[in-house]
Amino acid sequence: MLRLTWAQPEDLLGHELRQAEQDGREPSVIAARWTAAGGPPAPDRAGASPVPVSPYLRLLAQDLLDELADLPSSLTEREPTDLERIKALCPDWPVRGPGPRATGPTRSSAAPAETRLEAAWLGRAAGCLLGKPVEKLPLDGIRRLARATGNWPLRTWFTARGVPPELVAAHPWNRRSAATSLAENIDGMPEDDDLNYALLNLLLLQRYGRGFTTADVARLWLDELPAGRTFTAERVAYRNLLSGVEPPRTARHRNPFREWIGALIRADVHGWTNPGDPAAAAEQAHRDATLTHTANGVHAAMFTAAAVAEAATGAHDVHHCLRTGLCVVPPGSRLARAVRHAVRLARGTEDFDSVVDELHARHRAYHWVHAVPNTALIAAALTHADGDFTGSICRAVAGGWDTDSTGATAGSIAGLLAGGPRALPDRWTTPLKNRLATSVGDFNGIGFDTLAHLTHRESLRS
């Protein structure tokens, strides 16, 4: 039986009920109707419940999804999606940079831009790959698996060698990823959506330029992105496009994942191609994100793009970059508050396990793919590691939640800060073999050096 993940109305409803509680709506009456009818809760970690519901419950779920969407939110003013309203709430919105982007280093010790971009691509890949085998596992499972091989605090790839069978039975490696992402199995960078979206946004800029629209993003996806390579909010938005729903309604229509991490993982290219211009990076990320996300889901993408744009100059430390990211996020939003708390916690706590425990306690109401806790974790990892590459990706992955995505974003920023591929430890880059697998366009098998060249070329286009 085919149970399509992230798409069944009966599964979407439970997630929408949770989303409503978090974004200031009052869903209790609708929740009671669903429970009284025998409706199941949302799957906790999987994308689909194991068995289908009756036709009646499926129709009811569709109706209730629409009713939930019409409920007013008390957080709308603090957490807008519209760009002009976001800017109006951000007193320190960055000044747009003039003219073409810088082509060289911004200080005598900075590496050439193309070299930094290669380190960013490699860092994104390595951080993603580190997190892939433990994606979806609870925090305790990640810690136990790493400790079983003497790899805690986390400092290198996960391995199945030496792990007791009973521990693997209790906390199985990610089924789809173990064959390509455990230390003994790595042979180049396997396909992952955290890299696919970077490739798509490179294509987006090549095809439409900096002035692309959200509709252009949709066109590109329909042309180049296999539907089966989409997940959560992206899958719902893709389905909405095929049903004739137009952007930006694609992000809102029966899409309970619109504040999850999907837009954040698409943001790096917008920062890479706008070095020193965080405002331009954030605005590009906004146009991209609003195809699939709203409010904090969009804010997380803008935060990431702006922080990456500052890191891409080679002129600033990680703490400055994170502060710049916050300049494009409404300060009263849940995301901004979570990031500020995470940074304070990381700066004031020596033991990173204690930082993670506090973050998990504070954000326990959120799904493990939600943008708010994952963005907070990225900021905490980068802060605690002071931007060091190994420290940043290992802390991000060791923090749990969406491990491959947090590792990827932390690796991108820390790679830029490192300055070039030679500054990254060989144990992270050599197994990648300068080769990326993907189903996007003609990129399959491409090298990270070539990707850096193509990205740098887009950064120079006006």
Automatic annotation (TrEMBL):
Q: Which domain of life is it from?
A: Bacteria
Classification via InterPro entries: ADP-ribosylglycohydrolase, Ribosyl_crysJ1, Ribosyl_crysJ1_sf
Q: Where is this region: Disordered?
A: 90-111
The residue ranges crossing the membrane are: none
Which PANTHER family does this chain map to?
Answer: ADP-RIBOSYLGLYCOHYDROLASE, ADP-RIBOSYLGLYCOHYDROLASE-RELATED
Name the chain's protein. Answer: ADP-ribosylglycohydrolase family protein
State the species of origin.
Streptomyces caeni
